[in-house]
Specification:
The structure is a single chain. Strands 3-4-5-6-1-8-13 form a 7-stranded antiparallel sheet. A two-stranded antiparallel ribbon has the order 2-7. By secondary structure, the protein is an alpha+beta fold. Strand 14 and strand 15 form a beta hairpin.
């Protein structure tokens, strides 16, 4: 994708030394990259429809044109880069409208964040030894472009005041952002939706929103999590 255009980058970095066995062989790791799973048809998932290829003997990579790129290293480091333009995270606008008023789609951000964490949960199970902890990271790149800035609105896509009429829009405060959380792989395995929420909160608070403005979220025993059912059926919120 164009290096000057806005993008979100997600990453997983194991803290302890570990690796994928027989990493470059045709097998389960490649199948995971090629078929990472999805919450619903035609949603914001990490499926590229491409075949994993070995790059420079260093990593496996799959990508879908300029919209999605997944890169996995033998030591367990995993990178996902997705377009934040109208072709993915700002879906619902024409290219012209996006350049004039680059509004991020909240459902897209929530869904791709959960899909990323779900894939991380599957990948760590193939590491040997399984690390006790990993860092999960999220970045926003090139938030300022073409004399404008990415912006986000509160609540979901069916909130007319917030989404349709851009009430309470908040612009990216800086050109770029990087945040990270350290989580146990046990927590990642047991409740990825709660881990996904923690990453999502980093994004929303950077834009200046209080956590209660984040859509498609629920809570259980005081712990907030991305509600998969609300993502699958956004009209129910």
């Amino acid at each position: 994708m164009n290096s000057d255009y806005p993008a979100f980058v997600y990453a997983m970095v194991p803290i302890e030394r570990t690796s994928f066995k027989n990493f470059f062989d045709t097998g389960s790791i490649r199948r995971l990259l090629e078929n990472p799973g999805q919450l619903r048809n035609a949603g914001w998932d990490l499926t590229t429809s491409g075949q994993a290829r070995i790059v420079k003997g260093e990593y496996l990579e799959v990508k879908s044109a300029e919209r999605k790129l997944l890169r996995l290293y033998e030591d367990g480091m995993f990178l996902v880069k997705v377009s934040a333009a109208e072709d993915f995270l700002s879906w619902g606008q024409s290219e012209t409208n996006f350049k004039q008023s680059p509004r991020l789609n909240p459902l897209a951000i929530v869904e791709v964040t959960l899909n990323f964490v779900n894939l991380c949960q599957q990948l760590v199970g193939h590491l040997s030894p399984v690390p006790a902890t990993v860092d999960l990271k999220v970045e926003v790149r090139n938030a300022f472009f073409d004399k404008t800035k990415l912006y986000l609105t509160p609540y979901g896509i069916l909130s007319e005041a917030a989404f349709a009429y851009n009430v309470e829009r908040r612009y990216a405060p800086e050109q770029s952002m990087r945040r990270e959380i350290r989580v146990s792989t046990e927590d990642l395995k047991l409740w990825p939706a709660a881990i996904g929420y923690s990453l999502l909160e980093k994004i929303y608070t950077w834009f200046g929103f209080a956590p209660d403005k984040i859509p498609y979220v629920n809570s259980r025993n005081g712990v907030r999590f991305i509600d998969e059912e609300l993502v699958k059926n956004p009209r129910s919120q």
